[in-house]
Amino acid sequence: MNQNYKFFNHKDCEYFPCHKTNDPDNFNCLFCYCPLYALKDKCGGNFRYTDNGIKDCSNCFLPHRRDNYDYIIIDCMPSLGMLTINALSAADSVLIPVQPQYYAADGLVELLSVVKGIKQRFNPGLEIEGILFTMDSSRYNNSKRNKQAVKMAYGKEMRIFEKSIPRSEAIAETASEGVSIFAYDSRSKGAKSYAELAEEVLNHA
After folding, report:
1. CB-CB contact of 11 with 28 (8 Å)
2. In 3-state terms, what secondary structure has residue 49?
3. Which of 111, 131, 159, 200 is the most buried (most CB within 10 A)?
């Protein structure tokens, strides 16, 4: 497998290196815009705030280390627009979140058709990592029936993750707070579910 998703050194760039470094051969250009920038003072990097309140990361090498990235997750919007298509064209595999509801499960057919088309035309290495049930209300019979229907329809073709993400007020509130579920409430049921999912994904990788 191509390893460019872990390390990319673009010496032909007119701005290379964008930070002063004594080791240009190991300067990782993968993220010119740091994915941790939005975490503000919790990013763990070497930064300062200017007098105008702007976060200055010009002395930070955290996103530019060669060995920083084992896995990269691209979180897509729940639509089949160009951003999703571009993400699928670049990815090694796709994890499909599905709400255990009738119309959400029905939309799975269209998504799988798009994945098949992208695999044929743009990304022959694209694989389906599996189906993940999210916003799961397991105590409702309707949810149980729809989960069973998805398992019967696709269980022999692809992985159905054992762990599901429950419907949770804490998870819903993280969006408005702009933080992860672990930063918001690390002891919540939602945080535990995501931690278990991450372990299951890594064990499967």
Report:
1. no
2. strand
3. 131
Strand partners, 133: 98
Structure tokens of 167? 């419907």
Tell me the three state secondary structure of residue 128. Answer: strand
**Could you give the CA distance from residue 1 to residue 6 in angstroms, rounded to a whole number?**
11
Tell me the average pLDDT of the chain: 80
Q: What pTM was computed for the model?
A: 0.65
Cis peptide before 17 (omega within 30 of 0): yes
Q: Give the model's confidence band at 172: pLDDT under 50 very low, under 70 low, under 90 confident, else very high.
A: confident
Helix axes 102-121, 141-154, angle to 10 degrees: 30
Q: What is the pLDDT of residue 147?
A: 85
Structural contact between residues 60 and 73, judged by C-beta atoms closer than 8 angstroms: no
Would you say the C-alpha torsion 34, 89, 9, 198 has a positive or negative sign?
positive
Residue 205 and residue 115: Cα distance in Å, rounded? 19
Kindly write down the DSSP assignment for every residue of 91-102, as one continuous string. Answer: -SEEEEEE-SSH
CB distance 133 to 98 below 8 Å: yes
34-68, pLDDT tens digit by residue? 666 667 777 777 788 888 777 777 777 766 666 66
